[in-house]
Amino acid sequence: MIRLRKMRIPRAGACFVLCLAAAAARAGVVEQGLALEKQERWADARALYESRLRDAPADAVAALRLVHVLVSLGATAEAESRLADAPGDAPWFNERGRLRFSQGRFAEAVKAFAASAEKDPGFVDAAHNLGVAQSSVGDSDGARATFGRVLAAHPDFLRSWNALAAMEARLGRYDDALKALDRARAIGPRDYETLTNFGFVYGEMDRLTESAEEFRKACESKPASAEARNNLGRALLRLKRPDEAEAALQEARRLDPKLATPIFNLGLIEEERKHLAAAEARYREALAADPGLAEGWFRLGNLALARSQEPGHESDTAWSESGVRQAVESYGRAVAVNPVYNEARYNLALTLMQLRRLDEAAKHV
Predict the structure, then answer these.
(1) pLDDT single digits (tens) 4-44
(2) Any idea what the Cα angle at residue 227 is, between residues 69 and 200, rounded to 5°?
(3) Measured on CA atoms in the order 48, 53, 55, 60, is the torsion positive or negative?
(4) Which residues, 6 or more positions from 114, have their beta carbon under 8 angstroms from its beta carbon?
(5) Per-residue pLDDT tens over the stretch 169-227
(6) How far apart are CA 330 and CA 344, in angstroms?
């Protein structure tokens, strides 16, 4: 048997070993955290980084990743607090931009992302985010140029092909959007975002069968996604296949009971079936989950207006004042949530005119 002698490590060597151990611990935590982030297990990633920072408050990498996770969770106040004394280097400017973007402060986001990209021209995430923010402030030419630079340097950067496609689709340039998505599909044939964007673009082009097929592929790419099932359900509803749509939407509810949009879409099915009381119940349930769902308020307004017609009258002028008042309240909520929801503004103006509140109606014409 060979007996190992106990080795004495000089003080400098001991420090070196300790530094290596600390670096390994940090690397292990970050590696675990990034894996959790990839799975969108944001709460678990947050707990991991916070635990690390309690043990090693000076760990800048864990601090940066924590801010990233807080922004992803919508914990804006905590992210703001941690960014207050953050360094002025590229990754931190990028996180400032993500925070401002999440708050809808798009012009400030543009400045932060531009500063990040300027400090580190090779930081592809910052350059990509700059293009997205430019698109959000209506600078489509600037965004197109930014995405062009990103993709010239990194032609396989999927996110920028998808962001470019989404911008072109919003501008009604569907052929350009499909060209960008074709490039994205060549890079990642089963990429969830690419499949989803194909579904939305085909939907905007009224190519409904192709839209549903792309959303079905997205469900296969991400089986645990409630959003994917919801998108498929909405597409099937547009194809007048309510039973299949209902099955997809119920599966979305099972996957994420708190997600409002599948509940709302189930209300659309009930309304299509003329089950108006059931539809109203669905819309109210969806709005309880997400009061910012403008389309839910709009649909409630339509139902209230329909009820305002007095039974036994064929004239459009026969109406119940209480029903119209309910419609005004619902349309008003829709407009408050989304001021550019023109259909809701138009209906709000009409119902206000019905109540002879002409000055208020004039504000929404």
Answers:
(1) 334 343 444 444 333 434 555 566 888 999 999 988 899 99
(2) 110
(3) positive
(4) 130
(5) 999 999 999 999 999 999 999 999 999 999 999 999 999 999 999 999 999 999 999 99
(6) 9
- Residue 50 sits at the vertex; the CA angle it makes with 46 and 53, to the nearest 5 degrees, is 145
**DSSP codes of every residue in 99-132:** HHHHTT-HHHHHHHHHHHHHH-TT-HHHHHHHHH
**Rounded Cα–Cα distance for residues 238 and 189 (Å):** 25
Alpha helix locations (H) across 256-293?
Answer: 260-272, 276-289
The packing angle between helices 342-354 and 294-308, to 10°, is 30
Could you tell me the two tokens for 331?
Answer: 């349309």
Separation of alpha carbons 263 and 233, rounded Å: 11
199's tokens: 């579904």
Q: Please, which contacts does 30-39 make with residues 24 or more away whose CB atoms are closer than 8 Å?
A: 30/61, 30/62, 30/65, 33/62, 33/65, 33/69, 34/65, 37/65, 37/68, 37/69, 37/72
* AA letter at 149: R
188: amino acid identity, one letter: G
Q: Distance between CA 71 and CA 307 in Å, rounded?
A: 43
Q: How far apart are CA 61 and CA 43, in angstroms?
A: 18
